[in-house]
Amino acid sequence: MSDKPMRGRVLSRMLLLLVLLAAVGALIYGWNDYTRFGATPLNVARQGDSIDISRGSSFKGIVGELRERGLSKANPWYWRLLAEQMRVAGKLHAGEYAIEPGLTPRQLLANMAAGKVLQRNFTIVDGWTFAELRQALTRAEKLNHDSAGLDNAAIMQKIGAGGEAPEGRFLPETYAYVKGDSDLDILRRAHAAMVKTLAELWAGRAKDLPLATPYDALILASIVEKETGLPAERARIAGVFVRRLQDHMLLQTDPSVIYGMGARYAGNIRKSDLTTDTPYNTYTRPGLPPTPIALPGKPAIEAALHPAAGDALYFVARGDGGHVFSSSLEEHNRNVDCYQRKHCR
Hints:
The chain is mainly alpha-helical. 47% of the residues lie in helices and 8% in strands. The mean pLDDT is 91.
């Protein structure tokens, strides 16, 4: 029997084996390449990047945008296989997602499946006026500015606080939001936080305060907030004003006068400003001003409701952020001469 057919069969089997080995090798390479894809970070060029998935976007469209932006060069089928393997295909939520350095395709799909959208923070700063708060909201990124064009009264009506003066009504704090949230949402939350905080602190207030309502406490706290930025001084400042209220003395606080001047204030307060009557001039009108003059933080409210004991009725700025306290007008006048007029004796 000729060995030619046998050699042909051997060659055929060897060829088949080579084909099978090549196929297995290709499968192994493909699987390893796919595995590397799922664990390899995306091509993120800068910090703080994001991808915005609109409602109704297809999986193909999402992958297409990732490839178009150069975030991924992988075969689209890798993305589809990974989504099927993770059992999230068809379950990706619309929204804005963070694309940070080190983020892998697997992590991105997990975030999208969980609806872990990108959160931003907006901070209300202690001592801001409501006007300053509104200005800051206009600069917040990815926030719907639904309050634009509304006056203060309309804003308060929109957030469920109609009839309230807005000044002082919003708790300085950091509030998280996502793309598509409204500035009215933040104001609503900050207002609710102030209502809750003020009620809790009012319930634990010191006894015999000359404050009839929580709103009185809010007004006093706003004055304390504007008078000092030093935590150690807040309760002492509050103590001075509480004693002046108890003794029926004029509060004579410059920040309140400045607030009442509005746009007329040009950076300096003059003697004529102290004698020009406005509802907020505490040199010409007794008691507390009609509304807060700023947004007081929680520490300032605590100080107003727990003023430090003592006999000081006056204070003057030292020029270094702190104040010198005195119990008599004579001593106070000497301190004014020394620290403001630089005529120390």
